[in-house]
Write a structure and sequence with these properties.
Blueprint (H helix, E strand, L loop, with lengths): L6 H12 L6 H38 L9 H9 L2
C-alpha cells in the first residue's frame, strides 16, 4: 500500500521516531490509524445514541409527554431544575 504525506506530516513522523516514542514510521502510522478508528467508532456510537434520543423524543411528543419552553427564562428554569 502506498500513500503520500504532506511535508508537515513527514516532519511530524520523523520527529516522533527521533524522540524515541516510536521505533519507525510504520509504528507512528499504525498508532494514528488506531486512534482514527477509535474516534470513528466513538463518533458512530454518539450518532446512534443521538438518533435513539431523537426517536424517543419524537415518541414522547406524539404521546403528549412534553413541555413547551417559550423564552430564555423558561429554558434557564428548566435546566436549573434538572
Amino acid at each position: 500500500m502506498n500513500f503520500s504525506l504532506t511535508p508537515n506530516l513527514e516532519i511530524f513522523i520523523r520527529d516522533c521516531t527521533a524522540s524515541g516514542d516510536y521505533n519507525n514510521a510504520s509504528e507512528v502510522v499504525r498508532e494514528a490509524l488506531r486512534l482514527l478508528k477509535h474516534n470513528e467508532e466513538q463518533r458512530a456510537l454518539k450518532l446512534e445514541r443521538l438518533r435513539a434520543s431523537i426517536h424517543d423524543g419524537d415518541e414522547a411528543i406524539a404521546k403528549g409527554d412534553s413541555i413547551t419552553l417559550t423564552s430564555d427564562q423558561d429554558l434557564d428554569v428548566f435546566f436549573a431544575e434538572l
